[in-house]
Every structure is written in structure tokens, then in C-alpha cells.
Amino acid sequence: MASAVEIDAMRRALQLARRGPRGLNPQVGAVILSPAGEVLAEGFHRGAGTAHAEVDALSQLAPGAARGATAVVTLEPCNHTGRTGPCAVALIEAGIARVVYALDDPTDAAAGGADRLRAAGVDVEAGPDAESAAALVADWTHLQRTGRPHVTVKWAQSLDGRAAADDGTSQWITGPDARRDVHARRARADAIVAGTGTVRSDDPALTARADDGSLLEGQPMPVIIGESETAPDAAVRRHPRAPLFYATHDLHAVLADLAEQGVQRVFVEGGPTLASAFVREGLADDLLVYVAPVLLGGSRLALGDVGVPSIDAAKRLSVASVTSLGDDLLLIARPVETTPRRPEPVPALAGENEGDA
């Protein structure tokens, strides 16, 4: 069982892990403790191709200084050779006597470090603060399991399910509390996705902003999907991060390419056509629906064709939460069962309205 000192060290390791970048590799932190429980060194993973957290911490110690020490790590030490060598071997060679880690490595390639350590005579303890460690790398774990980023599809609608009035106007369906929540969620995403139709009709900046209009610290990478050209003076081209343009309607291909670039979390905010396409293809992991207590009527539905020809084929959801935001409601729902398939041709991503919250 982990000691109180080791549990404190794990909390510190989790803090260190958050300093590392989100990307192709998980965020991992490590603390090296002396046999007496004193902190000898700390480390975290600083990005693909750099030393892993354990090795980063060991590198701060003189040769032999880690002998008999305990390594506290947020993720099971890896057991494979990639751009760097196996962390399990580095710990063994450093003379580490005990390893405490929070979460088993979910990947086949890197797993097995704990077994390798035990085989070398290292005392291994798994599980302390596993819930916090799992939450930290949840998006990366999803990427490993599915091969694509976690996708959140957001839209704002009236109580009768409309994204805009019949004349196309949609700002603002919801109130300031809902809009503030949207921008906070944008700031936590790695990429924000819109269709070319929304970019052309609404000219969104796709930034995460504070109430006074200033930019928040976290800014998602803007991603534009569709075959139409984006105007040279479009607001998205002034985004603090360079936009990515995909002249395709193959959402699977777009997500696969984003995954290769280390994008873990995607926020889709591109109007009814694009939202419907992600839902239809089984690519929506979370649905964020901001509902305003207004009635609009008309034909501007918040969702279009999502591939449901009859009630028997309805896409079943579980409601994760319902939150009041001023006069509005935020419903977060998730598919009961997601079975992604290769896409059929989808309508051009044009003529849609963002329905910004």
C-alpha cells in the first residue's frame, strides 16, 4: 500500500504532468523520493521526442544517487523503444528500488513496464490516485482506443429545435451565461471545427474570448471543412493560430489527420449541416445542446439528416447532465452505443448557419 508520503508525491506528480503539452504523447509527471521520503528530483514529459517524465527526473541526479529510491509516476513506466528508450529499463539501471504509479498504460506497445520492473526485483505498487490520472489523460486514452480525437458537437437552439429564425438570423438565441460557457469550453479544446458555409455566411472568428472581447489564454486551432474557398479577409484568417483547411467531406479522414498532429479534443461548432454529418457518421462523443426558452418556428432546424429513416433506427443517447445557465439550459448527452462507419457522400457543407450560442 502506498504511504502518505508517496500519495503526496503522486499529487505533486499530477501537478507536474499538467505542465506538459497535450499531443501525441500523454501528459506524465514523476517524483523521485529518497529512502527517507525526501524529494530528490521531479520531472515531466515535455513533448514528443523528449525524455519521458521518469528519465527527465533521473537526469537531474548524479550517477548512483537514485539507488534505493522510490519513483512515483502518474502512468505505468513504458516498456518499449520509440524515440526514447524504455522507462522501465532506465529505472532499473538507475537502481530504483520501488515504483508507485497511478494508471496502467492502455497501449499494447508501451504496456508491460510493471511486469518488467517486478521481474528485475523492483517493488511495484499500482493504483494510487488512479481516478485523477485517468481524468488527466482521458482524451489521449480515447485517441489510443479509437484512433481519432474526442469529438464534442455543440449547437444552440430554441425550445422548438430551431438554430435560427427563418430570415437566417441567429445571434443571439441564448444569453450571456451560455455564451460564456461556450467560450470556456472552446479554450479547453485543441481544435474548433466549422464548415465553409458557416465561415462564408457568419464570418466567425472561432476564438475563445472573455466577456470584454479579449482572447482567453487557451486558443483552439481553427479547422475549416468544405470545398468552398475561404475569403482572404475572413475573420478566421486573423486567428492567433494558423487555420487548417480541408477541402473534403470525409470526416473520418479529417479526424485521422488531426490525430496524427496530436489533436486530442475537437469542438465542432459549424452549423446544422456539419453537426448533422458528425452525428450521422457516429463521430460525436459528446453533444452539447444549449436550449433557450424561445420559440422560432420555421424551417431552420438545429439538426438535419442524421441517418434515422424510422423510429427503430433512432440514435439513443444518455443524458450526462442538465445545467441552468441564466435563462438557458445546457444538456450534455452521449451516444449509448457508438459504431463509427465509413462515410457515404454527404451534402456540401454550405448554406449553413452557425447558430452561435
What does this entry look like structurally?
With 357 residues, this protein is α/β, with parallel strands linked by helices. 25% of the residues lie in helices and 22% in strands. The protein is built from ten helices and 13 strands. α3 (87-93) packs parallel to α4. The longest helix is centred in the N-terminal third of the chain and has 14 residues, at 4-17. The protein starts with a helix and ends in a 22-residue tail after the last strand.
Helix tally equals: 10
Give the amount of beta strand, in percent: 15-25%
Mean of residue pLDDT? 90
Q: How are the strands of the largest sheet arranged? A: 9-8-7-10-6-11-13-12
Rg, Cα atoms, Å: 23 Å
Structural class comes to alpha/beta
Cα distance spanning the termini: 48 Å
Total E-strand runs: 13
In brief:
The chain is an alpha/beta fold. Helix content is 25%, strand content 22%.
Which key phrases capture this entry?
357 residues, five-stranded mixed beta sheet, 13 strands, 25% helix
What is the element layout, followed by pairings?
Blueprint: H1 4-17, E1 29-33, E2 39-44, H2 53-58, E3 70-75, H3 87-93, E4 98-103, H4 113-119, E5 123-126, H5 130-136, H6 138-146, E6 150-158, H7 176-188, E7 191-195, H8 196-202, E8 221-225, E9 244-246, H9 251-260, E10 265-268, H10 272-280, E11 286-292, E12 317-325, E13 328-335
